[in-house]
Amino acid sequence: MKKNILFLTGFSGTGKTTVGRKLANNLRWKFLDIDEELTKDTGQAIKQIFADLGESGFRDLEHNKLLEAVAEDNLVISTGGGILTEPKNLHLMSATGLIICLEATISTIQKRLNSDATTKVRPMLKSDLSTESIVKLKSSRQTLYAQADWTIHTDQLKPDLVATEISRALHLLNKENVPLFEIAPEELSAIVETRTGSYPIWVSSNNLDQLGERLNKVIDTNTAYVITDQGANGYARKAQISIESAGVKAHSLTIEPGEKHKNLVTVELIYKWLAERKAERGHVIVAVGGGVVGDLVGYVAATYLRGISIVHVPTTLLAMMDSSIGGKTGIDLQQGKNLVGSFHQPKFVLVDTNTLETLPERTLTEGWAEGIKHGLALDKSLLEDFEKNIGSLKNLDADITTEIIKKSISIKAGIVSEDEFEKLGRRILLNYGHTIGHAIESVTKYSTYLHGEAVSIGMMAAAHISASKNLLSYGELNRQEMLLQDYGLPTTYKNLSIDKLKTSILSDKKKNHGKINWVLLNEIGKATTTPEVDDRHISKALKNVCSA
Predict the structure, then answer these.
(1) In this predicted model, what pLDDT tens digit does every residue of 468-504 receive, in sequence order?
(2) How far is residue 320's CA from residue 218's CA, in Å, rounded to a whole number?
(3) Number of neighbouring beta carbons within 10 Å of residue 72
(4) Which of 451, 453, 464, 537 is labelled catalytic?
(5) 486, 526, 239, 508: which is closest to 376 by C-alpha?
(6) CB 370 within 8 A of CB 376
């Protein structure tokens, strides 16, 4: 278990001992310099220990002194510049405390070492303070220094300010070192691994009032901006109360609901609102609502001040099982859906399934499409869960609903962790049904079909294409259709021009070299991608899902 121990590491001349003494005094902790302690123990200068025992013997003494030191607590330890060259030292330091690396440029190091009349001899430099000698030794250690928990560049900083910066880092790192899996483990659906770090997804039937507490555990901020739409206004108010109760100042904004407002006009409105409140990068935006809110507010968070932290509190099935996970943000243009967007991962996602109880029936129904999609494309056992629990899920049985939502979320979270930016061909499998679904939404100007309804029809069209290419059996196609209908989802469209749909399909953002990368089914639970879908397949599929 980690203690209150700070290890200062870095190359000679970066200020470890001077800064360490000041830091220990500020923290009222004990200070210990490993080299000084070895000199006391042996009665010899470091140079003489090297001469008598060689580097290997010196490293053994160094490691033993380190073992002795970490038995204490509330301690600042200044280490020798080469201590990390022994893997067992790095392991011990990482396991017992926090490692802070002090950095400086070669010219700064050379200047400091040359100007310090009392400087001790650095055995590994052999009194050679030339640029070439320093560069060679420092370069051999740089990958080890990079493994520190925090790095501070000291070139332009006086020791007092470096000590202050380390205190700030200690505060931030102590927050970050709360293991995510130890926070409400019974609610944890998944931990998503991304390039910018990990984030948890918590799912429970009553956890919205824990939002402020979770915010304090995961994020270091003093101000939050709760943004919602009229449909989730009540839950946003609860979120704001929870945040303020945790000692974080919270502002709130309610925007117009619906896909037709997921555009640059609304984005600009939010930008201005944030600017008026002097939002800073260190603040956090909390998106409370469905998929439209998550996509739109996520895009604002990704772009305002070149990026502000965001937390998602999805209140619809669609947002819970899909749009709040994975960092995709986006807004619509007249030419198509989500054509403008960015990847911006949240700090965490908090799902309170109690919010589903107040959803309009149609909004609740459309949400099942995304969960069923995960089963159809990626996990046959999840699809079987949906088949076995139709009544319980439609009636929102608390335990069954929570568990199946958790399972669906964990599937998407796993795919996102594998393929964050859709570069490896895995994440695109989550787009089963979306190519034609988005076209239906665009042609109808987002006024006829909800997103989940359009995706449901799109999945049927994709299944017909799969069957026509001899990938999916017609028995499995019928199985998909029956399940979608059992959940009250549409499987056909009415009164739409096939030519207009095909024109819209050509605007699909997943095109590569002018071709659409279609997501089709090999069988239930096993999706695949192919650009080899010609106009004949598309036309036939669109006719098959047209009821009038």
Answers:
(1) 999 999 999 999 999 999 999 999 999 999 999 999 9
(2) 20
(3) 14
(4) 451
(5) 526
(6) no
User: What pLDDT does 118 receive?
Assistant: 44
Q: Nearest CA to 93 among 104, 80, 108?
A: 80
Q: What is the pLDDT of residues 154-211, one digit of tens each?
A: 888 888 888 888 887 776 676 555 566 678 888 989 888 887 778 999 999 999 999 9
Decide if 47 is catalytic.
no
pTM given for the model: 0.66
Write out the two tokens for 158: 């006086």
Q: Confirm whether 328 is a catalytic residue.
A: yes
DSSP notation for 121-177: P-TTTTT---HHHHHHHHHHHHHHHTTSSEEEE-TT--HHHHHHHHHHHHHHHHHHT
422 is an active site residue: yes
Asked whether 545 and 491 are in contact (CB, 8 A), the reply is yes
Catalytic residue status for 256: no
Strands 511-512 vs 515-516: parallel, antiparallel or unpaired: antiparallel
The answer to whether 438 is a known catalytic residue is yes
Using only C-alpha atoms, the chain has a radius of gyration, in whole angstroms, of: 29
Whether residue 548 is predicted with pLDDT greater than 70 in this model: the reply is no
Catalytic residue among 65, 122, 328, 347: 328
- Cα torsion for 284, 290, 296, 302, to the nearest 10°? 40
The residues, ordered by sequence, that sit 6+ positions from 180 with a Cβ below 8 Å of its Cβ are: 188, 191, 198, 199, 200, 218
Q: Crossing angle, helix 451-468 and helix 535-544, to 10 degrees? A: 120
Find the Cα–Cα–Cα–Cα dihedral 431, 432, 436, 440, rounded to 10°: -70
List, in order of start, the domains of the chain with CATH numbers. Answer: 5-176 (3.40.50.300), 185-359 (3.40.50.1970), 417-544 (1.20.1090.10)
